[in-house]
Automatic annotation (TrEMBL):
Domain called RsbT co-antagonist protein RsbRD N-terminal: residue spans: 31-166
Higher taxonomy: Bacteria, Bacillati, Actinomycetota, Actinomycetes, Micrococcales
Gene3D superfamilies: PucR C-terminal helix-turn-helix domain
PANTHER family in the cross-refs: CARBOHYDRATE DIACID REGULATOR (PTHR33744), DNA-BINDING TRANSCRIPTIONAL ACTIVATOR ADER (PTHR33744:SF1)
Name of the molecule in the record: PucR C-terminal helix-turn-helix domain-containing protein
InterPro entries: CdaR-like_regulators, PucR_C-HTH_dom, PucR_C-HTH_sf, RsbRD_N_dom
Domain PucR C-terminal helix-turn-helix: 337-392
Length: 406
């Protein structure tokens, strides 16, 4: 009997050591695992996050937190912990507000579970030499993973349904919110009933941060708006349409100082009529995608139209930047060389004008451009468009503070 207990104790100790080793392996590889899951979700049409960058960011943060939680569970912690459950339910509420289908949200957890099971199987066979011990470890991690998944999904479903009911059926303006969403999406041809002239000229805006409604009111006052329509959107952002007769250039008179501290505003284009109402909103929303990522106080669609195409897929942005700028990014002087290249393009490919902007001699600009060409193996003049796009996307990455910025 003593030998049996000793043998059982020894076996449990060995299994515990192996689970710790697997836990550490996952913890050390979280950025790569999160990136792998994000890529799979991005390529999966069932798992789109819509156009809301705040929701995309929440998903990215949740994936990282989920991997950390699973790793801690393998090391013996009682997971999923309350901290992770709070994060998961906050994302579920934001998904409900954005109108993301519940099945799509749950699908992301299935993808997470599938990817993690593949990883766990690989780790057990890599770390554990004995096949019988491998089987025991796989049974343990399977139980832990299934328990984690069941608890989390149950919490997520409850949070989603509760928020969906509150946001769409009990909150103020629920009818208008649903009708406006259908009108913008083209599912209805007549505008909703609201105290707003949908046939006028419109400037659509999106405000978030501190005092978003006040921010929209201030923007309307500056433009002399004759009417405005304001509606709560997702993740504490507010949508606004301002009925204005002014020229688009007057929007350039907006200054950061004119709006509350901690507020953010993105705006689209000045358009007219029903189609203009939709188009201005779509452009303001694209500007919002960039502004939400960068944290800029004021964001105009006219300035960030290119960046908005990529704003919800930072991994693709990294890929484009690395593919185009490649060897240049490993140079110790990469920032100087990139700034010089961007100034050169902004100056109409005029080295003298670029030198004036940079405050250096034109020969210095010429030397730096030759250095760029040597590292990239191409002439700058033949890759003007591609390099300019890559430089702007690199700026986008840097302004977001994203991990892995080249």
């Amino acid at each position: 009997m003593g030998r049996t207990l000793q043998s059982l104790w020894t076996r449990n100790m060995i299994q515990t050591q192996y689970l710790y080793a697997i836990s550490e392996a996952i913890a050390s590889d979280i950025p790569q695992l999160s990136d792998s899951i994000s890529r799979r979700l991005h390529n999966d049409v069932q798992a789109g996050v819509g156009l809301d960058p705040a929701l995309a960011q929440r998903r990215s943060e949740r994936l990282t937190a989920a991997l950390r939680s699973m790793s801690q569970g393998l090391a013996g912690a009682a997971e999923p912990g309350n901290d992770f459950l709070v994060e998961a339910t906050v994302e579920a509420k934001a998904a409900a507000q954005a109108g993301l289908d519940l099945h799509e949200l749950i699908h992301t957890y299935r993808v997470l579970q599938s990817v993690m099971w593949d990883v766990l199987l690989n780790l057990t066979t890599t770390i554990i030499p004995d096949s019988s011990q491998q089987l025991l470890a796989q049974k343990s991690v399977s139980r832990l993973q299934n328990h984690w998944h069941d608890v989390v999904v149950a919490e997520v479903v409850d949070a989603y349904r509760s928020e969906q009911h509150r946001f769409f059926y009990k909150s103020e303006g629920h009818r208008l919110r649903i009708e406006l969403r259908d009108f913008i999406a083209g599912r209805r041809t007549t505008p909703p009933e609201a105290a707003y002239n949908f046939k006028s000229k419109h400037l659509s805006v999106v405000a978030w941060g501190d005092e978003p409604e006040t921010t929209i009111e201030l923007a309307g006052a500056m433009l002399g708006a004759t009417g405005q329509l304001v509606l709560e959107s997702t993740d504490e952002a507010f949508l606004g349409w301002l009925a204005v007769q002014t020229k688009p250039s007057l929007v350039g008179q907006f200054t950061e100082e004119a709006f509350p501290e901690g507020s953010h505003l993105a705006f689209g284009s000045l358009d007219e009529g029903f189609e203009g109402f939709r188009r201005s909103h779509q452009r303001a929303w694209r500007a919002y995608k960039v502004g939400r990522l960068t944290g800029a106080k004021l964001t105009s669609y006219a300035d960030v139209a290119l960046e908005s195409v990529f704003a919800t897929d930072l991994q693709t942005v990294r890929d484009v930047v690395r593919q185009q700028l490649g060897p240049l990014l490993s140079d110790p002087r990469k920032d100087i060389l990139c700034d010089t290249l961007q100034a050169y393009f902004a100056s109409g490919c005029n080295a003298v004008a670029a030198a004036t902007v940079l405050g250096v001699h034109e020969r210095t600009v010429g030397y730096r451009l030759r250095s760029v060409e040597e590292r990239l193996g191409v002439q700058v003049s033949t890759r003007h468009v591609e390099l300019l796009v890559a430089l702007r996307l690199r700026n986008l990455l840097q302004s977001t503070g994203a991990i892995g910025v080249p």
